[in-house]
Amino acid sequence: MSPLRSGTRKALISLEDVTKTFATRDGGELPVLEGISLQVTPGEIVALLGKSGSGKSTLLRCIAGLVFPSTGTVRYKGQPLRGINPGVSLVFQSFALLPWLTVQQNVELGLEAKGIAQDERARRAVEAIDLIGLDGFESAFPKELSGGMRQRVGFARALVVEPDVLLMDEPFSALDVLTAENLRTEILELWSTGGFPADAILIVTHNIEEAVMFADRVIVLGTNPGRIKRELTVSLERPRGRKSPEFEALVDEIYGLMTERPQPGEALAGEGDEEAVGDADAGIAGGRVQVMLPHASVDGIAGLAELSAVAEADSDLGDLAAVVGFEIDDLFPLVDALVLLGFANVERGRLVLTETGRAFARADIQDSKAIFREAALERVPLVRRVHRALQHAADGALREGFFLDLLNRHYSPDEARAQLDTAIDWGRYAELFEYDAARGEIRLPEAAEVA
C-alpha cells in the first residue's frame, strides 16, 4: 500500500449512485453511466478500467466538476460538488498544452488561475519542472519537445497546484511504448518515495497491465452504459514484477472480466416483427440497437480467427497478443466481434472457437462470406436492420444520412458514424448490401447492379 500523506482515511472523493445521460437530437437520452458509487481515500491509487463505451472519461469529468451527473451526488471532502472541483488536477491524454507559451508558462497556468503572485508562481513552477525531470527546458516551447517531454509538462502543470487527488485520463496512451514505460516508472517511484505532491491518484485506462502496475484498487467498468462490474484489491508490493505469478494471475482474472459480454442474438427490447411493417425505416427504428458493434474490420476478425485455429487449442489472449506484437487491449474489439458473431467464446482469458468459428477460419473466401452472412443476419441487429430497411425501400437504396439520423438518436454523432461504418464493412463483405461513397448511398446488391 502506498504511504499515507494525510492523517485521516476520510474519503477525499465519493460518488453516490451517479448516473449520467446525454440528450440526443430527437429529445431522447443516451445513458453513459449508471449507478456508480465509489470512494477515493488518501494514500491510494485507484484505477478505472474499461473498454470503449464504459464511460471512463465521462466519470472522470464528473469527479473534476467539468460535467455534472444527471442523478446521484459527487462529493469532495464530504461536501456536494457544485462546480469545478477545487481539490483535483487533471492530466490529459492529448497533453493539452498552449503552443504559444513556454514550458514554465504552461506550468504556471493553474497557479495564475488561483491568483498566486508572479514570483511565487515562478518558484513553484521551477520546482515542479525539476521534480518531473524537465529542468533546463523552462524556456522551451511545446513544439520543441518530444511527446514524452510534453506529457511531463502536463504532469508538472497538474502537480504544481498540489492537488488532493491527481486525475489521469489515459495519460500514457499517446506515447510510444518505451517512453510510456519510462514515464510510468518515474511517476510510481515519485509516489513510492513519498515526494508526490498529491494525496491520491485516480487513473483512467483501458490497459490491464497498467492498471495492475499502478493501482491499489482496480475498478472494472462494464459498457453501454458504464457500470461497476467488479472492484479488485491489489495487495502486491511495489515495485511490481510483470512476470510474477501473482501479477499474472490478477491480470488473467481481469482479462476474464473484461471479455465477458451478454449472450448476443437475443431479441431486443421493442424490436417486434419488422417484416410486418411496411415503412422503409422499420428495419432499424423498431427499437434501440442495444448490441453495439465493436470497432473491428472483417480482415481483423478473420485474422484473429485464423490465428486461434492454427493453435489447434484454446488460445490464451495474452499469447495471441504477443504473437502479433500488440497489447491485449488491442484485441478486445476483435474478440468482441468473434463472440457477437457466434464464432468464439471467452473462458477465463482464453479464446475458444466454436464449431462455426473454426469453419469460418478454415473456409475459402466464398464459403467464409456465406458463413459470415448467415451469422450477421442472425446475430447482429444493426446489419440485419439495415438490410431489412433496404428491402422495404422502393428501389432497394437509401442514403446513409437516413441511417445516421436514426442512430444519432441513440449514440453520439461520432459513435453513430463508427457504428454505421462498421455495419457497412460487415454488410459489404457478406454481400448483403453495397455502398456508394460518392453518392453517400447504401444499396442492395441487385439495386447496385441496376444503378
CATH classification class of the largest domain: Alpha Beta
CATH topology of the largest domain: Rossmann fold
Number of helices: 17
Shape: globular
Number of strands: 16
- Roughly what is the average pLDDT, rounded to an integer? 83
Unreliable segments of 5+ consecutive residues: 1-8, 262-290
Helix content: 40-55%
How large a portion of the residues is in β-strands, by DSSP E? 15-25%
What is the radius of gyration? 25 Å
Q: What structural category do the secondary elements indicate?
A: alpha/beta
Overall CATH architecture of the largest domain = 3-Layer(aba) Sandwich
Q: Order of strands side by side in the largest beta sheet? A: 6-7-8-3-9-10
> What distance separates the N and C termini?
67 Å
Largest sheet: 6 strands, mixed
Overall structural domain count:
2
Q: What name goes with the CATH superfamily of the largest domain?
A: P-loop containing nucleotide triphosphate hydrolases
Description:
The protein is α/β, with parallel strands linked by helices and 451 residues long. Helix content is 42%, strand content 18%. A hairpin with a 2-residue loop joins strand 12 (344-347) and strand 13 (350-353). The longest helix is centred in the C-terminal third of the chain and has 17 residues, at 413-429. The chain is globular. The relative contact order is 0.10.
